[in-house]
Design goal:
- This protein is 73% helix and 3% strand.
- It is mainly alpha-helical.
- The chain has three domains: 20-34 and 41-75, no CATH class; 89-258; 262-373.
- Strands 1-3-2 form a three-stranded mixed beta sheet.
- A hairpin with a 6-residue loop joins strand 2 and strand 3 (149-152).
- The longest helix is centred in the C-terminal third of the chain and has 62 residues, at 248-309.
- It is rod-shaped, with a radius of gyration of 47 Å.
């Protein structure tokens, strides 16, 4: 059968028409009309579109997550490093007791414990805390962030409270190191402002011992001193120190207790010094009177001897009672003078004993002095 060429041609025309239609679709959509998933754009299922969107978004989201993690780790680095430092660490019983007595908050305990604090005898303590200044007794030292707190074991019962105050003092050094830039600036301003109002001579003396340090070191010391030794602080500082102590007044009580042995003896020494000064004045005055009396008696005796030698017995005899009365007065002066001297010597001896006790107390809290005494 002969092929029907007209039908063939019609088919060709239809094919061209179809191609033309496809081209118009391409022109109308500006693309191929299909997504990169292989589905026509208009017919792409929702789950396919969501999967495609997730593939496009996950790289920046992952980067954002990574940055957030880095920032979080940076912000929490101290807590993380503290946790690592405290892993497996159990504070000794004496250290736990001191932390309780000093009323440390949980945060302050962490600052204390991360330094593996130790109460040490003089040889170990002097090795860990060398005193280069040789100006003040060193009771403790903080060697750096998480690197150690060492406390001298003061055993003299008259100085009870020293260990607790020293522990709190050194813990506050660690606390100061942890302050952020803005917070440290704020606290520094509060410390500086308060320092200008101090009138207590003991505190002023302590601050003078740090005058050769850098200003930042002075502020660091003020931060520890004010927190452990000043009973009443401005409200902002009181609020600040509440981060570290549940009852800061207890730490102050320990400080007062530990200083009482010194303050009581110093008060007694001051009292003796006043008495000694007055007795010295009285003794000097009476010595001058005795010297004058002795001169007068010598002159009277010489005159009487001259009368006696000249045979003026009546004149001599008339002068004898007056001379004897003067001698009796002189002897009373000597007795009074000797009594003053005895009082003076007695008070001087008592003062010496108190001063010796004070020196012993000073040595009891000075690891370097203890080392020297044992040589």
């Amino acid at each position: 059968m002969t092929p029907d060429t007209s039908r063939v041609n019609d088919s060709s025309d239809n094919s061209d028409t179809a191609k033309g239609d496809t081209k118009r679709v391409i022109d109308a959509t500006g693309g191929s009309g299909t997504s990169n998933t292989g589905w026509p754009a208009s017919a792409e299922p929702d789950f396919v579109r969501r999967a495609s969107l997730a593939r496009r978004l996950w790289p920046p989201l992952f980067l954002l997550f990574l940055v957030a993690c880095i920032v979080l780790v940076w912000l929490m680095q101290d807590r993380i490093l503290d946790s690592m430092a405290l892993r497996g660490y159990v504070p000794p019983a004496d250290i736990q007791k001191v932390a309780r007595q000093a009323t440390f908050t949980p945060y302050a305990e962490r600052l204390f414990y991360v330094n593996k604090p130790a109460i040490e005898e003089k040889d170990t303590f002097n090795k860990n805390c060398p005193d280069e200044s040789e100006q003040v007794a060193v009771l403790g030292c903080y060697t750096g962030d998480r690197r150690g707190i060492h406390i001298y074991n003061v055993t003299d019962s008259r100085l009870d409270g020293v260990v607790q105050v020293t522990a709190a003092h050194e813990m506050l050094h660690q606390a100061y190191d942890r302050l952020g830039t803005k917070e440290r600036a704020r606290i520094n301003d509060l410390l500086t402002a308060y320092a200008t109002t101090i009138t207590d001579q003991d505190m002023l003396k302590k601050l003078s011992e740090y005058q050769n340090l850098e200003s930042t070191e002075v502020l660091n010391e003020e931060h520890s001193l004010f927190g452990t030794e000043v009973s009443s602080l401005p409200p902002e500082l009181e609020t600040y120190y509440a981060r570290y102590f549940t009852n800061r007044s207890q730490v102050i009580a320990y400080h007062v207790q530990s200083r009482a042995a010194f303050s009581e003896r110093q008060a007694k020494i001051d009292e003796y010094d006043v008495q000694i000064k007055q007795l010295k004045t009285d003794i000097d005055s009476q010595r001058a009177q005795i010297d004058t009396t002795e001169l007068q008696l010598k002159q009277s005796k010489a005159q009487m001897d001259a009368w006696l030698a000249a045979g003026q017995l009546d004149t001599y005899n008339d002068a004898v009672p007056q001379f004897n009365a003067a001698v009796a007065s002189y002897r009373r002066q000597l007795d009074a003078f000797n009594s003053l001297v005895e009082q003076y010597n007695d008070i001087l001896e008592k003062r010496g004993k108190i001063a010796l006790q004070e020196e012993e107390l000073q040595k009891a809290q000075d690891s370097q002095a203890s080392s020297v005494d044992t040589k």
